[in-house]
Amino acid sequence: MTIEHTPAKPAAYPVTDATRDALAVAKRGCDELLVEEEFLQKLARSKATGVPLRIKLGLDPTAPDIHIGHTVVLNKMRQLQDLGHTVIFLIGDFTSLIGDPSGRNSTRPPLTREQIETNAKTYFEQAALVLDRSKTEIRYNSEWSMALGADGMIKLASHYTMARMLEREDFTKRFQSGIPIAIHEFLYPLMQGYDSVALKADLELGGTDQKFNLLVGRELQKQYGQEPQCILTMPLLEGLDGVEKMSKSKGNYIGISEKPADMFGKLMSISDELMWRYYELLSFRPLAEIAQMQRDVDQGRNPRDIKVLLAQEIVARFHSIGDAERALEDFNLRARGGVPDDIPEVSLGGAPLAVGQLLKQAGLAPSTSEALRNVEQGGVRIDGTVVTDKGLKIDAGTYVVQVGKRRFARVTLTPDA
């Protein structure tokens, strides 16, 4: 792929109220916008000329599924898309072969081509639950990265110094601690930056952990004679615990492909304080409406009512309005101690079976020890009766088994033949 070396020609365009409103949409919930005045002028130029801005988000398909923490930046893309700009959903099939070292204290193992292709298949299908599919440009960075070849890679590397690379915090810490840094890791921010050159991006989005890489793209655009992109970083969403960032490995996440009732229940479990953070980063409601909700709560309205609205909005986005309504009904039923209509049916043998084994085998607890902890905490019910005896053995029969507020199963237990 040939990159044209055309120098940027900045010009002043009138900044209108509509332009400032667009800037406010862009800044909503963001951590940082660099450089704000430059982006305001880009918005003004787009408004005056009718040419949409090119807004880029790059994601490496390191896993097949995404959770709502990943959608924070996708929500911002959708907001900018609704303003009429071109959004580019860039799948980093080439950069995944290198492995993003951001925020790590060791070399990240690169993915195989087979892993990348498998994960990429589902990535956009999930992202399209947030983005307008018909107005999204989907690209793969192997389009231009593979074509660079060895000579192109060397030329690209000549545009950035080792000293600048070592300014990156994670590289600095590893270097000072004597932890090895492989040469190929320096190629990652270079290749991500070159994506911005290839796509002629006006704005690139990413999480706060991507700031260095986004700035590399800005610098490389200058080196290639392009107008430098602005960068917008979004916060990393806290998980259900309100402390650690949302992560599958920490178990504090909400997957966007989870069942409506599970998604609803998890959203209702967050703290009242964390609820406002989720509203800011996940809700599409106007900020003025959210501010009024906060005033209502300060004046005595039950925050549970506000949390229900958030849970319904998120469930409807990834499922449907009908699913959101049914999830609310299911949640209220569980809160009253009722049993939902749609619960798993499980058949087990081995009666009489110890309660810990029953919970584990029925998929209601990840391990026997965790099952027994739930019994100790009074979180296990069989046919509505709280189980208090960790040594209880269950005879043959059919039972409704409940762990906590959200996990149910109808278990049919039979003796071994």
UniProtKB/TrEMBL annotation:
GO biological process: tyrosyl-tRNA aminoacylation
Subcellular location field: Cytoplasm
Pfam families: S4, tRNA-synt_1b
Motif ('KMSKS' region): 245-249
Binding site for ATP: K248
InterPro entries associated with the record: aa-tRNA-synth_I_CS (IPR001412), aa-tRNA-synth_Ic (IPR002305), Rossmann-like_a/b/a_fold (IPR014729), S4_RNA-bd (IPR002942), S4_RNA-bd_sf (IPR036986), Tyr-tRNA-ligase (IPR002307), Tyr-tRNA-ligase_bac-type (IPR024088), Tyr-tRNA-ligase_bac_2 (IPR024108)
Source domain of life: Bacteria
Enzyme class: ligase
Coiled-coil annotated spans: none
Known partners and oligomeric status: Homodimer.
Name used for this protein in its record: Tyrosine--tRNA ligase
Upper lineage: Bacteria, Pseudomonadati, Pseudomonadota, Betaproteobacteria, Burkholderiales
Gene name tied to this protein: tyrS
